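YM 10:42: MFS transporter sequence, as discussed on the call
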Amino acid sequence: MLKKLITEVNHFKRQSHNFRILVLTNLVYALVLPVIDIFVAAYIMRNSNDTSKVVIYQLAIYTGIPITFLINGFLLKHVNIKKLYSIGMMLSGVSMIIMMSLKTLNLMGIGVAGITMGLSFGLYWSNRDYLAVSTTNDNNRNYYYGLETFFYTIIAIVVPAAIGWFIQSKNGEEEKHGAYVIITAIVFVITMAASMVCYRGRFENPIQKKYIFFKFHPLWYKLLSLAMFKGLAQGFLVTAPAMLIFKILGEEGALGNALSIGAVLAAIIIYFIGRFSKPADRIKIFAVGLILFALGACLNGAVFNETGVIIFLLLLLIAKPLMDLAYFPIQLRVIDIVSKIEKRGEFVYILNHEAGLYAGRLLGAATFLVLYYTLSEDFALRYAIGIIALLQLCSIFIGKKIIAQGDKIAPEKEEGAVDTPKILEETASNLV
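YM 10:58: structure's back
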């Protein structure tokens, strides 16, 4: 077992300097992502008991992101990308400070905190996506995202459990609020540490300075439709676990426990899938993730009790990394192909891709809010996720078309793909 671990470490060391620094930067910052994604929503739920405010907060975030993508395109002409990347990470801590300083959670305060978090995510994701496409190639992207999702999944187990325990150890609302303040301070320190790691990279700004175009290759339009379906779930899925746990399970401690069950094994499996799979396996991985998500969402809607929520969260913990592991390399390969055909810089497509995501996010959040206000909160929580999960299954067919068209334009240089079931068998043997 130790020998296999050393082999994996050596494989990581053989990657380029910027590859390693980018992974390490994202690894450090990943420590705060569960706090941002889950416990800020839990804080809103605890202090308002209103799921619509959580979704409105999420909408404010998703409104700030595309605006910041545009601003970042301008700033990249004048400011080093490492500085913008670092500012993006640190702004997430600022957003949490704004949220914790609110005496009452009114829509104005939630909106300001959400927009600030959107500015943070916009700077973070736009620069991170560009660095990913410029630092990796199609042969090592499965490994890159497999490595990231492995760490993210482990962190998504440990951090929620630890924070949930910490909050639950406090008595009374005042002490619990104090716990959130301490967590916010820790988040700010971690974002500073991630920024310091980022500065060790030798990252360069995009060469092309024009980023806004309105006509694209047909392959790109197919990817935009896939992005819309991805954004559909993001519309409120980030905060859905916290809403379900407060309504069905009860407290933050339950949230930590629910996310911990069996997820270590899932993280290891995802790592090995990323490590040994080939580009041709991506659609299989994507399909498995989408189907698991749909199964969990439909089961939650059918039973809508503690067991259903826990099973949904566990399946989501497996499904989301699988979907991301497949989606991002597909996206970056399309950028590689289309940018060469149209002779444009990669950041053009990273910026335009956000438009597809934003359209889907608005539709996803609107689905929840319409069900919430026209029917009931329970109906929205129970069925909106299932509706969106079933719609997302269309992504499998769109993904197949994208890969097929991409292979016609730029055939893979690699030899045949590794069969995903065999990857799982190899993973099992590696664990023994």
